Amino acid sequence: MKLWHPTSENIWQGRNDLAEADNALRVFQTIKQPANFSPEEFPQHIALLGFECDEGVKLNHGRPGAKLGPEYLRQSLANMASYDGHERLVDLGNIRADTEKLAEAQNALSEAVYECQHQNMRTLIFGGGHETAFAHGMGIYRAFPTQRVGIINFDAHLDLRNSPQPTSGTPFRQLANYCQQHQRPFNYTCIGASLASNTQALLDEANHLDVTIIWDTQCIESMLDKVQEQIQDVINQVDIIYMTIDLDVLPIWQMPSVSAPAALGVPLERLLPLIQLICQSKKLQAVDLVELNPLYDIQGMGGKAAARLAWQLVHWWNG
User: Fold this and answer.
1) Which of 15, 70, 183, 260 has its CA 20 to 30 A from that of 223?
2) Per the confidence metrics, is the pTM higher than 0.85?
C-alpha cells in the first residue's frame, strides 16, 4: 500500500480499570491493531484509517496543521469507555502525504478505501483536510459501481470551488465531475452551511448541480424535526451513504482547532441527533472527520469534541 505506515505505538493507551471488573473496558483496550494493512482479515469490521495530509488546505490558503489530526484524534478517543460497536474498530494505520503531492496521496487513500470496502469493511477516516473527501468518495464510487451513492456533508462550506488545481475547497466539485464523466447521479447534501462563508458563485454552482443545502440557521432546536425529515428523504433516495464531517461545522467555542472556525455553527447537541439518524439507517458505509488541527486547540477542547463525535457515531453505526 503506497504511502502507508502504521499508527504510532504510543497512541492507544489510557486508564486500566480491569481490576474493578472484566467489562470495565476503554477503546484503547478493545481496538484491534494489526501490524500490517490487512483488511481481508476483518470482514464486518470498521476500518479506521488516518489521512495525514493538509496539502489541500495549504493550496486553499488555510491554516496548515491538519496532517497532525489523525494521531491527535486517536489519542483523544483512546481513553473513552468501550461499548457496543467500539470493538468493531480496526486501526489499519495511515496514509501520509508527501509535500506538494496531493494527487498521489489521494490516489493512495482511494485505493485503501476501495480495498477495505471490497473486503466488506466499512471505512472511518480521520483527516487531514477536506481534500480527504475526494479520495474517500472516489473509493466508495469505485467499490459500489452500480449503486446509488448519497453524500451527506456536515460543513460550514459547500466545497464546490472552481480551482485550476484540487484543494480542500474542491472535493465535491471533483466528485460531481467524476459522476458526470461516468454517467452516475451526483446526490450531494450539505448540512450546516453558512451563507456568510459561501459566495454567490458557490451558490450558483450548488444550484447548477442540484445540491440540497440545509443552512446553519435552519439547524435550530425548533426546526430539527424538519431537518430530520429532509435527511430521511435523502436516505430514502439512495442505496449507500458516505457521510463526511468537516469539524468546522461546530461553533468556535466547541471547535477552535480548525482552519476556519465558525462564529455560529451547529452545536454538538444539535448535530448528534442528525448523525444518529444516518448511523442507524443501515445504509451508512463510510464516514470521515476532517480538518482537526491540533496546533490551534485550546485545552484539548477540539480534540475532545471530535473524539466524542467519533465515539458516538461508531456506537450508533448499524450495519
Assistant:
1) 260
2) yes
Task: Say whether the peptide bond before residue 139 is cis (omega within 30 degrees of 0).
Answer: no
Cβ–Cβ under 8 Å, residues 291 and 259: yes
Q: Which tens digit of pLDDT belongs to each residue from 56-93? A: 999 999 999 999 999 999 999 999 999 989 999 999 99
pLDDT value at 319 more than 70:
no
Burial of 304 per CB tally in 10 Å (0-12, 13-18, 19+): middle
Chain-centre distance of CA 264, in angstroms? 21
State the Cα–Cα distance between residues 28 and 80, nearest whole angstrom. Answer: 8
Buried b (16+ CB within 10 A) or exposed e, 197-227: bbeeebbebbeebebbbbebebbeeeeeeeb
Supply the mean pLDDT for the chain: 97
Residue 262 is classified by DSSP as B
Please give the annotated binding residues for Mn(2+), written as ranges: 130, 155, 157, 159, 246, 248
45, 32 contact by CB (below 8 A): yes
E strand intervals along the chain: 4-5, 46-52, 89-96, 122-127, 149-154, 187-193, 212-215, 240-246, 284-290
Q: What is the H or E stretch that residue 305 is in?
A: helix 301-316
Per the annotation, binding residues are: 130, 155, 157, 159, 246, 248
What per-residue confidence (pLDDT) applies to 279? Answer: 98
> Which CATH architecture group holds 4-316?
3-Layer(aba) Sandwich (3.40)
Interior/surface letters 261-286, b for 16+ CB within 10 angstroms, e for the rest: bbebbbbbebbbebbbbbbebebbbb
Q: ∠ CA 74-102-35 to the nearest 5 degrees?
A: 40
Per DSSP, the residues of 89-101 read EEEEEEEEPPTT-
Cα torsion 74, 75, 78, 80 to 10°: value is: -110
Quote the Cα angle for 95-99-102, to 5°. Answer: 60
Phi-psi region of 39 (alpha: psi -120 to 50; beta: other; left: phi over 0): alpha
Distance, in Å, from the CA atom of 297 to the CA atom of 141, rounded to the nearest integer, reads: 34
